[in-house]
């Protein structure tokens, strides 16, 4: 049976919200810090397991950098915990996940935002100008350049196998599958081929 409750942890100035299943197994966890209730954890242990399965311990560390580290092992509802209904938990979960995904600059973990990487464009299954292009950066997770980045630059859509230099601008973990969001650090002038020609 699924239960939801929240409880205060004074030592870290935290409010923990737990959704637990049988034997106290954590299904989802939200942890909010301080008076401002800043989300420091919005994690799903099953999703963390999928990230580990997809990309090994590297993927688990990337997941933790984005969503925080959930409690290990079963959780016992402490005295004084407040019950939370499903709707209230889902609303708090949505806010916390959006904050951890979109408002936090992921400067920690195995691949901090701002890291420079070399890679190779590996194709756009949706066709040029649509959605974006995958990039092989030699890591367990795929790199991805959003179409808007290339369209704003006005450069020619890169062909498969085109090498380039990139900067990590964001990390995503959807459905337990990590993805590295990138932008090229230099793009060719409109009409010129990739990679940018060097000096003669």
What does the main sheet amount to?
5 strands, antiparallel
Structural class: alpha+beta
Work out the helix count. Answer: 3
Q: How much is the average pLDDT?
A: 91
Strand content: 25-35%
The low-confidence parts are none
Report the end-to-end length measured between terminal Cα atoms: 70 Å
The coarse overall form would be elongated
Radius of gyration: 20 Å
Helix-strand topology string: EEEEHEHEEEHEE
> What is the domain tally?
2
User: What is the β-strand count?
Assistant: 10
Order of strands across the main sheet = 4-3-2-1-5
Into which percent range does the helicity of residues fall?
10-25%
Protein traits:
10 strands, 5-stranded antiparallel beta sheet, 3 helices, 5-stranded mixed β-barrel, alpha+beta, 200 residues, 2 domains, 24% helix, OB fold (Dihydrolipoamide Acetyltransferase, E2P)
């Amino acid at each position: 049976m699924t239960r939801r409750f929240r409880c205060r942890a004074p030592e870290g100035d935290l409010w923990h919200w737990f959704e637990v299943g049988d034997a106290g197994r954590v299904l989802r966890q939200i942890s909010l810090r301080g008076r401002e209730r800043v989300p420091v954890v919005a994690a799903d242990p099953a999703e963390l397991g999928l990230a580990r399965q997809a990309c090994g311990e590297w993927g688990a560390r990337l997941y933790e950098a984005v969503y925080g580290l959930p409690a290990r092992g079963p959780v016992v509802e402490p005295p004084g915990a407040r019950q939370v209904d499903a709707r209230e938990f889902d609303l708090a979960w949505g806010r916390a996940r959006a904050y951890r995904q979109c408002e936090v600059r992921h400067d920690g973990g195995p691949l901090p935002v701002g890291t420079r990487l070399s890679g190779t464009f590996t194709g756009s299954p949706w066709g040029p100008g649509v959605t974006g292009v995958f990039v092989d950066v030699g890591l367990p997770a795929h790199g991805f350049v959003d179409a808007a980045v290339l369209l704003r630059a006005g450069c020619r859509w890169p062909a498969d196998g085109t090498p380039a230099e990139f900067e990590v601008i964001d990390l995503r973990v959807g459905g337990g599958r990590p993805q590295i969001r990138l932008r090229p650090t230099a793009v060719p002038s409109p009409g010129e081929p990739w990679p940018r020609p060097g000096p003669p």
